[in-house]
Amino acid sequence: MHTTRYSLILILTLLFSPLSAQDNQLPPWEKGDLDIHFISTGRGNSTFVLMPDGTTLLIDAGDLNSESERYTPPVPDRSKTPGQWIADYIQQFHPEKKNGTLDYVLVTHYHDDHIGNFTPQSKTDIKGGYKLSGITEVGSIIPIRKLIDSGSDFRPLGEKGNSYLIGQLEEYRKFIRFQEKTNGMAYEKFRVGSLSQIKPVKDHAAYPDFVVKNLFSNGEIAAVSDSTIAIRKFKEGDLPPENDLSSGIRISYGAFDFYTGGDIPGIGHTGAPDNESMESLAAPVIGNVDVATLNHHGNRNSQNEFYVRTLQPRVWIGQNWTIRHPGEEVLRRIMSPYLYPGERDLFTNALHPVNESYLGDLVKHYKSKKGHIVIRVYPGGDRYDLFILDDSSAERPVVGSYSYKSK
Ligand SMILES: [Zn+2]
């Protein structure tokens, strides 16, 4: 009797004793794994990719550098800036920890929630003389080997240009020039259609079924079946919105496909037809994928019907930072069984409480509404797991996990 009671107590204790953060860490990355980390800061996008050979790629590092009740709260807290938290996160999960470098940084476009916001109040890097925020702050902590962006097409810095971008780009380019000269960083313009501009640089030969395709940039869209440019949406003299100029890539590993494409729009809410939008023009070259990030953070002008029907992802990832993310109609479209059959799961780094209340019943579609999100694709690409890491502490323990088969 006593023994039974003791056993019962022991079992209950084991079941309900809280695991320490250390016991519950993300299993370490191993050679052959593809890890895609959606880092939660509450202040814009940042995605850290660890390729199967250990090559590293960072896509964007946002920092709004301002406060508003319309923003999601900064996480884990204000003791570091978003750029510093992103660097801290990378150093935790980089195989070389604090000695790690970033083989590639891809900047999708030049808005603050993707590169940082440089204000007169921003701290200045003493040696480089450039303002520290977002990507320039990460790059001042972790050395960057190669930085890729869309260049200056359609972005004249004269009087016709977007005045907000002028100051932004000045600081960002000061950072690039300094890193090129002082730290040997290479700078390249995004090459639309390329299958090799971003590649495993440590052991390329070992992973022939791992490919990054450069899909679009500056409104130029690659052909579906080769490396040529199939569509040029803009012509010289045009001044398109910055979001339309975003660069997008597809990462394929065996049967697994992942897409991310900055802030391209899909709904012509200022009068242009949807079928002329970047989403509609790019959907065929993106193709059917396993995991997709929501374009433009799920803003209401994104994820049009044709686009959703074409991609049909099993997993949608939201990178939200404001009350507008996501739009109600966007949720209805991406979850609609009329647009594509079968199950799909939805995750986000954050959801603003006012939008959560506004969305009401639709919130049930979220598997998780908070935290860092990690996709781990296992060797060969047939299977992947999705982990949620607690973003309220610097230890980042695992608080949820899901398993999937690639399509
Ligand atoms: Zn954005």
From TrEMBL:
Residues 42-117 form the Metallo-beta-lactamase domain. SUPFAM superfamilies: Metallo-hydrolase/oxidoreductase. Pfam families: Lactamase_B. InterPro entries: Competence_DNA_uptake, Metallo-B-lactamas, RibonucZ/Hydroxyglut_hydro. Keywords: Signal. Residues 1-21 form the signal peptide. It comes from the Bacteria. PANTHER family: DNA INTERNALIZATION/COMPETENCE PROTEIN COMEC/REC2 (PTHR30619), RECOMBINATION PROTEIN 2 (PTHR30619:SF1). This is Metallo-beta-lactamase domain-containing protein. It comes from Petrimonas mucosa. The lineage of its organism: Bacteria, Pseudomonadati, Bacteroidota, Bacteroidia, Bacteroidales.
